[in-house]
Design goal:
Length: 85
């Protein structure tokens, strides 16, 4: 199982004690900019509904999640996408 931490270099995450604990747990550190240029406001419409869809669901691997996301996207009516733009 993969474990990692996604953070934006704020003080609690970059403190020495936190860094030592993350190394102890052997967690990968994923840098994250304060904002992502590749996300547009309409993407947040999608994520809100996708988050609700996945609430309470469990998955054993990334492939299952990817299939669920594709199935969810294909199952949305065209006006769903129009309403978020």
């Amino acid at each position: 199982m993969w474990c990692g931490l996604l953070h934006d270099n704020v003080q609690p995450y970059s403190a020495l004690i936190t860094t030592v604990l993350l190394e102890k747990f052997k967690w990968d550190i994923l840098d994250h900019p304060p904002y992502s240029l590749d996300l547009v406001p309409s993407d947040f419409h999608l994520f809100l509904h996708l988050k609700k869809y996945f609430t309470g669901k469990k998955s054993d691997n990334d492939d299952e999640v990817q299939e669920e996301v594709i199935t969810w996207f294909k199952g949305q009516a065209a006006d769903f996408y129009d309403s978020g733009i």
